[in-house]
């Protein structure tokens, strides 16, 4: 929520430094998302146009005589077209500082101009929200007044995060209450006395029929003599700084009260409401309503509407209807200030697919007392515009104080570990608006929460309030004693070590949703992606899903990673450690830990037979496995749903599959709108063996030798099997063996291939001889011939 500090200062005295204010709010539980600093503005005063003539030497210029209350009138030339005699405007005098501009004396086509008439844009306000040209101020603004100071144009604007259980703080007055209580200053609360004392005629009194229990309280009030016009400048400026576009005095008053008090309002054109009678009811099946944004909605009984005797006139707590909209010709208003059941408004908002500033407050269930406060403030502001206010009428539940809470004072020290004087505890609670009385015991207080707070209902809530006011920084940080327990932390420690290993390779950790729905799998099938097992048979179904999109526990983390690649829309490296769910052979739920790591990448310029990105993900997977196990796995061709059938491999240790590596099936990347190729490695954490600690072996002092072999083998023989066979046949003499080339072509036949192998031989006790090397290679060739049907290439 955007909170202009200048608006806050109307209610409470604050430090000059906006960062100090933001820090204080953060300690109170309202962290600031940003502090918007305003540009430097100086030398701008209120002036009145007392004369205006066309420039004698320029058709598009006017020359105005401006009275700024100093006794001396200024001559200022302007190209603006919305100026007229009698207007009160902001005037930048010589030397004034504007955003990117310093006002200096200048001559405009032979006329000396002694300043500048100022527009909204030159005051760093959104130009499209104000007049097209020079900004208009109120006629009663004293001439010579410093515009910047008067309207608070250089005070910063805070962007404050408000917790869901504190809808009372979704208002400038709510934030001011918090700051006043924390700073120990007096809050200047506006009057909430409703000026509407004139009784309604018998046939003109508003009547509200509440047919739904989801409307708790409804205050209705009539106004006549209404004139639609621009709102006062101070109100328009405050609204703009708070992020609300000024529209007209009536709309602006409703928005202003919502931002100031926290109570959303709605104004109806009273002439369009049959018999001044409003009905709060469930929508009828198929009922249609055109809202203020000219969108027609077909409603269901899940929607709560405000209707008159003929049709629905608005969506309760969400948006008004078009038919009873206030128009320039409107002369009489019917004000709605109502309190609704928050979950009902939230469900209606979700069903209709949109939220508003009003619904974002109503969906949190506001305090009923705000209805009268909001109506009173709106009535005061409407009366200031010349309207006549009639007596308000309240329907539904009465506003009653919350039940008093028994508050043992000793619980503050017991729960917080902070000993506070009783007087300080009482002062903090009273500063927050609580009413206190002592019980028979001096250690017990009876505390009644303020009418605007619904989140304080227990003694624990009061202790939290005391902690907020006293300051969490006063609570000593102590490590609590933890009793010995039987739950092992080995799994957590392993996953933490694994996350550190993957992050060290340059991957960023993400967390995706663990619930999926049948529509997701149906879309896969329509996209031509057929899974090996039907999801309805193998996926674990949630007994009470929140929606159809959250019916099943995930079987794979790959979709979550691909959705992330799609959102960032640029090459990215990411990983997630999480759980996947399936049924085992006994029909019981099998929950397994898994690491999914991968990257999206622009395909490099390389031959079709080469895929350096596959080698890259394979290398990273090997590095992860080696760091976690101390061993290098065996790798074979593999197959897995979601991965490219020709670019997938499985990694094994001790005959057990521990990982799958591959390129994501292009159909999957297209389905998830991933604009790049994606490569994934899946590591089955539960299958990883215990880590073997490496031991230092001193290198041999004697020189090594090597032999290169060119072998012909069947096409399905892997390079790894060749290396393994040679190592086994030669034994300790072989310190390294590596396949470094492959050839396929006419020289070896259509069903054979050629592999080039380098064998490194070395002894630790003497220099190896040629005879020993040749004998070792002979043993290797014999093993290759008998085991793999390999021959020396001619």
Class computed from helices, strands and strand pairing: alpha+beta
Query: What's the tally of helices?
Result: 20
* Unreliably modeled segments: none
Roughly how many Å apart are the termini?
Answer: 80 Å
Can you walk through the features of this model?
The protein has 794 residues and is an alpha+beta fold. It has 20 helices and 39 strands. The protein has a 7-stranded mixed β-sheet with strand order 27-30-31-35-34-33-32, sandwiched between helices. Helix 5 (233-241) crosses helix 6 and helix 11 crosses helix 12 (459-470). The longest helix is centred in the C-terminal third of the chain and has 19 residues, at 770-788. The radius of gyration is 38 Å and the shape is elongated.
Entry summary:
This protein is α+β, with helices and mostly antiparallel strands and 794 residues long. It has a seven-stranded mixed sheet with strand order 27-30-31-35-34-33-32, with helices on both faces.
